[in-house]
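Recall from the previous lesson that a structure prediction takes nothing but the amino acid sequence as input. Here we apply that procedure to Major facilitator superfamily (MFS) profile domain-containing protein from Oryza nivara. The sequence below is the only information supplied.
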Amino acid sequence: MAGTGASVKMIRYVVKCGGQQQHVVVAARGDRKSPAIAAPPPATVRMPGRVLCCGMRSRGADLAGVEMAAGPQPQGGVSGLFRGPRSSPRYSRVRATATVDPEDIPLEKVQAKSSGSVLPYVGVACLGAILFGYHLGVVNGALEYLAKDLGIAENAVLQGWVVSTTLAGATAGSFTGGALADKFGRTRTFILDAIPLAVGAFLSATAHDVRTMIIGRLLAGIGIGISSALVPLYISEVLEHAQQLSYLRLRLQISPTEIRGALGSVNQLFICIGILAALVAGLPLAGNPAWWRTMFGISIVPSILLALGMAVSPESPRWLFQQGKLSQAETAIKKLYGREKVAEVMYDLKAASQGSSEPDAGWLDLFSKRYWKVVSVGAAMFLFQQLAGINAVVYYSTSVFRSAGIASDVAASALVGAANVFGTMIASSLMDKQGRKSLLITSFSGMAASMLLLSLSFTWKALAPYSGPLAVAGTVLYVLSFALGAGPVPALLLPEIFASRIRAKAVALSLGMHWVSNFFIGLYFLSVVNKFGISTVYLGFASVCALAVVYIAGNVVETKGRSLEEIERALSSAS
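The prediction returns the following tokens.
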């Protein structure tokens, strides 16, 4: 673009005409709105008025029309600038005589406008993910102390119910969260969700008997179950168009298929941050046994902030469009992406709503020959994730460290939480480089080795003097391995491998498998440990991890760098 000056703006269009995809780059110089066409493909495209061929309305210079010439184009710059529309009110013609790759346009020559701001609203939604992790992890350090205060110190079954009641509530919340979001909207459901989160935290913090504690944990569980469905839904819907902002595409050189993995890790990362926050909050317990009440009460604050933040956050444009609230959808788009993105996003929403003529599948269709294999893969991913023992570590690592002779048991658990966050951050960068399948295999392999080390540290007499440090090292390695793949990948992989017509129900079924298995592990872990010993239980977890590696190698497809449509076609041909 030499010689055009720093005020040249490039607008890139991708249009489909006659079954072929055409790339159009429009240059608007200064305030004269003088367009040019670069990078013409070998085809001729005629576009009437301000509509780009198939109905996409121009968002750049005021074009009366464009025709691109067929045949090869010489290299070496852009020509064909014209000073204004020709006399024809319906069609104008411009012939491009050069080819320029839009990705080769220097950044300083591109002025991409976007007056909206998405990240603050994503941050508000992530409070729901933080609360999810916090309520899961808060019992880790507090369980022993609250058990003494509530008179259940010697009752492993009731302690299991204090832990697992949250998971029972989460199971119910996860199945109802999507329906509530579809009926009332995403932001309004967030506000409603803050009620059980805050009330449950208050009851838990003020409980003086196990019944009140269980009710509080149940309400909090319903809240985090709704959040588990709502947070990724809202984040994906407000980021799906932010991915297409010009400055993201040109400056960062990325595309939706390339960043899908990183975006899919956002929810998991903030869940891990919530778990870490709960473990760090337990550090004062050693000096103040009544601190466990404060630990539960702290979570009231982010619950209130979530409700207040969502009260001023824009609703999902996709949901508003589906409800026929077009003017409100345009208002939300302006707030999220800027005024100049309204036409593009509204067009995309309209195209998406007309994209599939096949009706949504029913629940029984999930078990048909056409879909059963892929549905079983999704359910197996979450089953392996839970039976591998991760939540036994999240809930009970402090108790295990204490039995291994670690003096700073809560601090050791906080170190485990930090490893979880660190591993998830690494996974976000590796997701679209190494691929989902390879990360899963590496992750479960590392988890198997770590669990085997933990089992041996409690069994071999030769390792007895080192059982404490080995317990901490093995647990940290286990959690780090989990965070690299087994933690974030299944939630990302499921929407990619499920066909669009079964996606919602298949994801719900898989999440149901997640919560049910999570519930039973939380309920019976202490009882099983008391009966069989921690070494045997850890050896069982190691066996599950090894079995997961074999299953993934034979049944899971790689989805890295492939569009959702390509993945769906590959799965259809495979089955």
